[in-house]
Write a sequence for this structure.
């Protein structure tokens, strides 16, 4: 409870069973996310361990963010949000070309 109060953890679970249930929920949440977005997040996190300066790290994050926008999953994310439905991500495959239009 003290770790929660000082912001060290985001939640406290009462039992090992509750922990395993929560782990399953987090895993499901990650599994439903756009794979390319998770790849880019992982690249950003791994780069934070490198010798990059803060400015260079921001540049890498900006590049990864921009590259993600050209992926078909970015179109699907927008479409599913507007249509209020769960997203169905294609995976890490083909990126869209800049001239391909959204089907919103």
């Amino acid at each position: 409870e003290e770790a929660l109060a000082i912001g060290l953890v985001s939640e406290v679970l009462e039992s090992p069973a509750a922990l395993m249930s929560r782990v399953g929920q987090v895993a499901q949440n990650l599994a439903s996310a756009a794979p390319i977005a998770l790849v880019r997040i992982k690249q950003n996190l791994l780069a934070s361990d490198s010798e990059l300066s803060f400015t260079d790290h921001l540049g890498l994050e900006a590049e990864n963010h921009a590259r993600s926008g050209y992926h078909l999953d970015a179109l699907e994310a927008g479409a599913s949000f507007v249509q209020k439905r769960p997203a169905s991500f294609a995976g890490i495959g083909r990126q869209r070309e800049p001239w391909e239009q959204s089907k919103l």
In short: The first helix runs from residue 2 to 5. The two ends are 46 Å apart (CA to CA). The CA atoms of residues 50 and 74 lie 28 Å apart. Helices lie at 2-5, 16-31, 35-47, 54-68, 72-82.
